[in-house]
Amino acid sequence: DVLSEREVAFYLCAQDAGVLRRDLPARWIENLMLGLMVAAREALRHGDVAPRDGADLAVTTFLAGTGASAR
To answer: How far apart are CA 67 and CA 40, in angstroms?
Structure first.
């Protein structure tokens, strides 16, 4: 769908800019982000993560695995 294509295009631009790892397929990153958002939602819903920590945990987890400096 259109939203998915835009998201993938965004990740490709981030890879071209050197922000995200180039060795990961952009579609993999798209799916990873979806899984991460579901995990964050569930952790918040179950009280496993404090609301104030949710966003930071999601961003740092994402960049630790996909960020250009992760390798």
So the answer is: 19
Helix-then-strand count for the chain, H and E = 3, 0
Asked if residues 42 and 54 have their Cβ atoms less than 8 Å apart, the reply is: no
pLDDT at 67: 86
Q: Report d(CA 1, CA 62) in Å as an integer.
A: 23
Helix (H, G, I), strand (E, B) or coil at 17: coil
Residue type at position 37: M
The pLDDT of residue 70? 64
Query: What is the average per-residue pLDDT within 32-55?
Result: 96
